[in-house]
Amino acid sequence: MDAPQFAPVTAANWPYPRHIAHRGAGKLAPENTLAAFRLGASFGYRMFEFDVKLSADGRAVLMHDATLDRTTSGTGRVDALTLGELAQLDAGAWHSPGYAGEPVPTLAAIVRYTRANGLLCNIEIKPVPGRETETGAAVALDARSMWRGADVPPLLSSFSEDALAAARLAVPELPRALLVDALPPDWLARAQALGCVALDANHKVLDAQVIAAAHAAGLKVLSYTVNDAGRAAELVGWGLDGLITDAVDTIFPAG
Ligand code: G3P
Ligand code: MG
């Protein structure tokens, strides 16, 4: 195994800002496209959450759904097409005419843009069903090579514990967050078993007690998708460390 490329990210040396733009710029631009990242950055966002899965030929691309139908000009499963075929699709016209022709970005293209502009990343590993282990390992290995020489590594997160386990095996030093939509009673044990540095939960299942329990165990806490400014303030008051939002035009990063 290669020597670790990044110093371990811990709660004590947490390098990430609190405000994180969801899928680039929420709903203001076509999700998971470079255009969305540019728009999110124009509102002052310095960190971006996005969804990554693999093409038929094992290349990491940004896409939320398992199928292409909702957000591209294509149809069917994302992993039925090669990268070359995905590159022919329009991932912007579904949103609004001004974004027509926006391509499906590769992870490599997003890394080029974010690193060139000093922006940080939260890669949500979102495998198509059945490719969890392969996707977790491939994304972690890609991240290690694409962020070579960077001061701050991307934060990996996933609802798939298999994907997180595979990412850990492939590149142990990349920080991981366990995503949960509901809060299982053993959430802390699950996060710890995967060597996670953070819990990343639907804001509806978070309260002051959960955040305090995570902090007491040495975990940071992120939350999605927080679009109401009052709720954001409440969560921050409880000590929330990472606030993933669509509302990049109304919730502004501090500082
Ligand atoms: O990573 C947090 C959030 O993006 C998880 O939900 O469905 O928007 O990917 P989803
Ligand atoms: Mg996501």
TrEMBL record:
The keyword Hydrolase applies. It is an enzyme of class 3 (hydrolase). Keywords: Hydrolase. GO terms for molecular function: glycerophosphodiester phosphodiesterase activity. Transmembrane segments: none annotated. Its EC number is 3.1.4.46. InterPro entries: GP_PDE_dom, PLC-like_Pdiesterase_TIM-brl. Residues 17-255 form the GP-PDE domain. PROSITE patterns: GP_PDE. The keyword Transferase does not apply. This is Glycerophosphodiester phosphodiesterase, cytoplasmic. It comes from Cupriavidus numazuensis. The lineage of its organism: Bacteria, Pseudomonadati, Pseudomonadota, Betaproteobacteria, Burkholderiales.
